[in-house]
Design a protein that fits this description.
The protein is α+β, with helices and mostly antiparallel strands. The chain has one domain (16-80): Alpha-Beta Plaits (2-Layer Sandwich). Helices cover 20% and strands 7% of the residues. The chain contains 2 helices and 2 strands, in the order E-E-H-H. The protein has helices at 49-53, 69-80, and strands spanning 24-26, 31-33. A two-stranded antiparallel ribbon has the order 1-2. This is Ferredoxin. GO terms for molecular function: 4 iron, 4 sulfur cluster binding; metal ion binding. It holds the Pfam family Fer4_7.
Length: 83
């Protein structure tokens, strides 16, 4: 399942550079996560890096984009081109 950024976001800019898949970008009002690029850092790290650095804890799992660990790993392989 990918992650989302809630309205509690304070636009502090710390999450965007931490994303290894470039899934986080500025939205109209707050940062947004592209669910097609978010792998919850599977393949890169043991934990989602954006959640680790967020000072207001506004990056929960997105209940509308549920994915298994295997699906996240497959997405990682496609995004990175690693077999």
């Amino acid at each position: 399942m990918s992650l989302i950024i809630t309205d509690d976001c304070i636009n502090c800019d710390v999450c965007e550079p931490e994303c290894p898949n470039s899934a986080i970008s500025p939205g109209e009002e707050i940062y947004e996560i592209d669910p097609n690029l978010c792998t919850e850092c599977v393949g890169h790290y043991d934990e989602p890096q954006c959640q680790q650095v967020c000072p207001v804890d506004c990056i929960p799992l997105d209940p509308d984009n549920r994915e298994t660990e295997e699906e996240l790993m497959e997405k990682y392989r496609i995004i990175t081109g690693k077999a």
